[in-house]
């Protein structure tokens, strides 16, 4: 019979008893596993039954059904997306993207922006001066037929947020930026080339996810250059968006290896606004 350690007043004795009880529990557990293994070797059906019953509870398999998840065969959604703000880019229109930062951005922020410049084809980086407000930059982009504006903001000289503004009429998405790692910080990284990458969007399955995914897709030309073997991936899981860029390498007729190019970072949507950026009077679609 195990003695409750909480009833032992002497600290040294209490620690000794606890360690002994823990050792005995470990031995009993190993013995049970060995006996179970022998029984399952003799009767494989026991192992199959155990695996069927012992399904670990995860956030994915315990998540309640979301009515907002879009069925691939949903004709209404397909019709809406055929006429939305991004439809032209899926029909061959070439994106024209400008990226900038907060005024006097630090080295880490400008370094991250340069990584993004290597990811998004034909994107233009303009250093932002103190006198230019965001509304002025938006108007500047509209006058010059830019299709998207990306703004990277920082806190204590570290990049912390990304605002994606689709032009000329919106929408606008604001993301929290974390876990930034440049290509040179990744061990065994590959070198990027100027080829247009293939784009993979994983698990953007709700109506909100479709909108955010199409915003990302509209940044990239819809004509990937397969000879570059570069893939940019936005993977949505538990409301976090993980970005990775790889090059795939054919080792043989049956094997393909991946070599990460970088950068890698994580985004989390903070709010989605209809129309252009307007923090005071804008209509929020999600927040």
How does the major sheet shape up? 11 strands, mixed
Q: State the end-to-end distance.
A: 56 Å
Question: Could you estimate the helical fraction of the residues in percent?
Answer: 25-40%
Structural class estimated from helices and strands: alpha+beta
Envelope shape: elongated
Strand content: 25-35%
Number of helices: 7
Low-confidence stretches: none
Radius of gyration: 26 Å
Give helix and strand order, one letter per element, not per position.
HHHHEHEHEEEEHEEEEE
Strand element count: 11
Average residue-wise pLDDT: 91
Descriptive report:
- The protein is of the alpha+beta class.
- Helix content is 30%, strand content 27%.
- Strands 1, 2, 3, 4, 5, 6, 7, 8, 9, 10 and 11 form an eleven-stranded mixed sheet that branches.
- Strand 1 (97-101), helix 5 and strand 2 form a beta-alpha-beta unit.
